[in-house]
Amino acid sequence: MSKFQAVPDQADLEKMNRDLSFYPSQVKSPQTLSTAQVEQYNRDGYVKGLAVFSATEADDLRGYFDQLLERAIAAGGDSYSISSAHLIYGRVYDLLCEPRIVALVKDILGEDVIGWGSHFFCKMPHDGKSVAWHQDASYWPLTPSKVVTVWLAIDDADTENACMKFVAGSQHVGHLTYRPSSDDEGNVLNQTIEDAEQYGDVVYDELVAGQVSLHTDLLLHGSEANDSDRRRCGLTLRYCTPDVVAGSNWHDKGVVVAGSDFSGNWTDPARPTTD
């Protein structure tokens, strides 16, 4: 589906001297989020329940994802393999650049924003796979760690069908030691942080389709296996400030979605012609 690995090799990451520190928002006059929501992001590491798309728009997005999933499975992939999708599908590129989403991100990162990631995380009913407690920054060849993830609910996401969960405020602990996940964990990813609940209160990211949440790359988060009869799909859209430096050729992913790339670090690819 993509030339970029969703989970880069550890050896490649070790070649970089990464600054994995939490950088709170410096935005003093947000235009879309409230000042209280920006303060919550800085304190707790997330903001959730933000309405972006109408029910009609969400239904249309769900139908579009159904088509992408069908194509991915036909090509030998699975419900987690649609990654770096904005480089392949024009409509996902449009979602990465969607003004209503970018406006939220600007209220955290500032006027200049790079959109570099787009990955569908689709838990099929009874698929048996969880996402262990982890920090996104551990996986990425990026420095410094100034990434905001937008999690867009394609389906309704709640505790019954394994919505995402956060450890509130855990970004302030810094980068944590993890262990490689064992095969019997059924982890979608490959890192596990033990005893994550010691770092704060667990909060469930319940969303209605069309809503989004925002979280920082150092926030501990994960999700349970989906034991329900309902699918739970979300699209993660990743954003950073232009001064972030990318390894493993990830600079080729980065689209200027607001302002400018004052650093010249990012390639700013054009919209794909295939939707």
- Radius of gyration of CA atoms, rounded to a whole number: 17 Å
> What is the CA–CA distance across the termini?
14 Å
Strand order of the largest sheet: 1-10-5-12-2-14
Q: Estimate the global geometry from the Cα principal axes.
A: globular
Whole-number tally of structural domains: 1
Strand percentage lies at: 15-25%
The amount of helix comes to 10-25%
The third-level CATH topology is Jelly Rolls
Structure description:
The protein has 275 residues and is α+β, with helices and mostly antiparallel strands. It has a single domain, classed as Jelly Rolls. 19% of the residues lie in helices and 24% in strands. The chain has five helices and 14 strands. The protein has a six-stranded antiparallel sheet with strand order 1-10-5-12-2-14. It is globular. The chain starts with 9 loop residues before the first helix and ends in a 17-residue tail after the last strand. 43% of the residues are buried. The model has no long low-confidence stretch (mean pLDDT 95).
Short description:
The chain has 275 residues and is an alpha+beta fold. It has helices at residues 10-14, 35-44, 55-74, 90-96, 99-109, and strands at 46-51, 113-123, 131-134, 142-143, 147-153, 164-167, 179-180, 191-192, 202-204, 211-216, 221-223, 232-240, 245-246, 255-258.
